[in-house]
């Protein structure tokens, strides 16, 4: 049926649009519920796209919708929204009502994830079951291609897209949380359509046509490459030859679970680079290319395959933290869903008697998630900033690879999820500041997971199977390594059971990395060198964190009273917050996390105490106590010092550092806690007037080579001029020259410490019956004599 855009204008739609801008939110929802109950599907068909867009926002981000990502439980609208969008609520009732009439709604291909969009526009169909038999080929050319989705698919597509569509939020709306309406709805939909107990609830709405109709299965005469002739959907296999009214309810309703998973996986995980895109393409796509060429031939010449944006495309997409949190929720639920498989259904002998839902549980993780999640995590590992926000990506990865928490996960068929991503994590962590407690916690989490009993042995066994000689697969030329994406529907008929574990491992690796992949062993010599380097970095960071923790405790104790007099350390860079909660809920300091991480890494890579001691001794022999007082490794540039790669590593791990200090105009630096703000401003005005009026005389005095010049430079030169031999952070030459001109500075007189010393001197003079003028004269004389003796001319 034609899309809503081709229908006549609807007065109902016009009235609803007007009411949405003039009436309260609660009243609008109540009227929508009444409209859904009272109006026929023919009228509701016209308002459905507008209503979905009003709720979830537009695909271009101009319309924000109900802003579900920022709607919290404390809001007055929260319960109204959750009741309206509940799987058994009015909105889903509308979906089922339209589904029974087999309406279709179009989604432009331009709003699909980048790799899918570009490949379709180039005449290549990706391995994406959601696109199966849904592409609409208009006569206007390839750029106006669209997907024709049924109401349920359209609703879920718009819901999933609202997570990744950039929107123009109002000022102040920039933080989402785990208790937002969107996050709760994702969890609710997953639990409803992928239940861990029982079956998927049947549609509560029955119409004259019988039950709500599933989408039409793909015609067997359309053998899309990458989907296979034997890849009829699980739904089709169970109900295609049965009348819809008498069909098994479980088999009839399972299509919603499959559709929901396809939409979530394709919209949330289908983002990767050009290199990965080329690895994942199906080798035979002639049918779609022929159809696209016939469609575009009427309007414009077909771009030759293999040219244009396909080979220049690079996915610019970077997930948000909220996006990754939702992906982690999906992974956790699918593990729980898969783990709820009945024990009697796990054995292969029972496969022919399993229900559609049980079959889905058995294959859901491997067929739906593995490939796309692996690519998604690789993208995040390579593009995420080197800061503590990476924790959300890390926990998503760990949620997948911890079978002892979620499901009996086959290590051989998930080898790359352990080894390749562990190598990616190593490449990140050696460039990370491990003195930061949040980064140290991430290292601890990964090390603890991989140190689980027997896990390293199983990974090593999987690597050995992959490296088995090719003669083990003497029938390989008659078989192909299948990626999880191949097979049409992810719930397509199972491939023949492969008993050869070597073949299964190779199939897994080649399916994810391509037949020409160069596998790097996790326990090989090349990676072992990186691990030893990481151990050295961890030990360096541990020593630095321990020292900083001890110094911070001392500074905190000393500064509580002495800072008022200016005798404490004014440098807040030495404060060190080194505590974080671990898995057990206890507060652990940074150096303790790093110590445990060292122990776990030694367990994983079988380093004994002697080897570790020798490694640490080798590290310590190249260092001395004076290194911490040296500048990091730098080269001289036009505007000052520039850090080298070695210097960056030294700074990151606390081996060397610049002495961080204020390098602007000394008179304009922020007022300190040990200074009187009124006096600082007063003395600045006085000294500015003096410097402005007598600046030329000061320059002339300080430029003299005799004794008076030396004395003038001692009293009038900026303190920065005397710091030539100190380890300071780089600054431009122009800045240095600007602030080193001779000037009078009275700011020290605004310090509480100076004021206290002057008060004590005046009190001491009063004990000897000296008046204020006499005491002032003695103080000035003493200061002059002290400066005279300190003058470099006497040295």
Automatic annotation (TrEMBL):
It comes from Oncorhynchus mykiss. InterPro entries: Sphingomy_SMPD4. It is a single-pass membrane protein. The lineage of its organism: Eukaryota, Metazoa, Chordata, Craniata, Vertebrata. The keyword Transmembrane applies. GO terms for cellular component: membrane. It is found in: Membrane. This is Sphingomyelin phosphodiesterase 4. It comes from the Eukaryota. The chain crosses the membrane at residues 750-770, 776-794. The keyword Isomerase does not apply. Signal peptide: none annotated. GO terms for biological process: ceramide biosynthetic process; glycerophospholipid catabolic process; sphingomyelin catabolic process. GO terms for molecular function: sphingomyelin phosphodiesterase D activity. Keywords: Membrane, Transmembrane, Transmembrane helix.
